[in-house]
Specification:
Layout (H helix, E strand, L loop, with lengths): L10 E6 L7 H14 L4 E6 L1 H4 L6 H17 L7 E5 L5 H10 L4 H5 L2 H8 L6 H15 L5 E4 L4 H17 L8 E4 L28 H9 L11 H13 L5 H7 L4 H24 L3 H30 L3
Helix pairs in contact: 3-12, 4-7, 7-8, 9-12, 10-12
Bound molecules: adenosine-5'-diphosphate and tryptophan.
Tryptophan binds next to strand 1, helix 7 and strand 4.
Length: 321
Amino acid sequence: MVGHMSESKPVLLTGLQPSGNLHIGNYFGALRPFVDAYGEYRSYLMVVDYHALTSLRDPEALRKNTIEAVKDYLAAGVDPKKAIIFKQSTVPAHTELAWIFDCLVTVPFLMQGHAYKDKVAKGLEANAGLFTYPMLMAADILLYDTDVVPVGEDQRQHIEYAREAATKFNNAYESLFKEPGEMIFTNVGTVPGTDGAKMSKSYKNTIPLFGSKDELAKAVMSIVTDSSGDVPANVYNIHQLISLALFKSGLEKFYQEHKGQYKVLKEALIEDLDRYLAPMRERRASITDADVARVLEDGAREAHAVSEAKMEMVRKAIGVA
Ligand code: ADP
Ligand code: TRP
């Protein structure tokens, strides 16, 4: 429980898509910056299973991915005593408030949503949930008087939508909602994949974050090395990142000494990757489903108490109570 936390700390909240199988790009771009930042705030970490329902219609996969997402964050270093970790669907205030926001914003306003347009352009079914997605996200954020929302650049517009929902409500009824700010981790840069392009699960160029040593080796051996010169850029760029994370120096010298010896260089990268990732992988293997269930239960209790207090005011303000 997060009882010892000072109430005066600013509030940080973020939502995780339960999409499974993280790669090292997700780690350096999202998990690690979160782990570095969350302790300074009263932090909420929420698995957004109702958001996932807009594009996933497989009950077993949804259940499993939700548990896996919590394990990923616990293994990456989030301490459940220092963050409120919960599942969106267990706190009914989220969908309730989303409906109220839906009644305050217009269809043309939602039509400008980049995420909606992109997903429909990619061929995803244009279901109404996908369309009103930003208002559920606004509810997620605004229920907890959130100050900052750490997200990737692609989510910037959603935070603007949350601010707009707060303004619309505050103007129409009472000033109950605080406008949140975004926290975009811009100094991280883009982690390159095995083909040199941005590492992404959609490009099948990933190095798995929790892969076994054999899986890491397989991914590294598949790194494309048809670059000109003796130093394979795709290998070096990933190696540099890991080397930095391990506080190791002398990488450039090592590559100079082993010019053109791609196998030696790749084997060295496998060793370094494994050295960096093994402790997290081991920690993850020790986390049971029962541990996750306990964490989510505690989190739901706290999230429920805070959001319900807000909803009591909201219901009075709009005239249903
Ligand atoms: P993917 O591209 O594999 O589908 P997501 O879009 O689910 O990844 O991204 C989840 C989080 O991980 C986002 O915050 C995103 O900014 C971060 N992220 C994903 N890929 C990278 C990468 N190659 N480099 C840095 N950050 C990344
Ligand atoms: N839309 C976010 C994403 O795709 C996930 C999300 C849902 C979220 N609710 C949130 C992020 C609230 C931050 C705060 O990544």
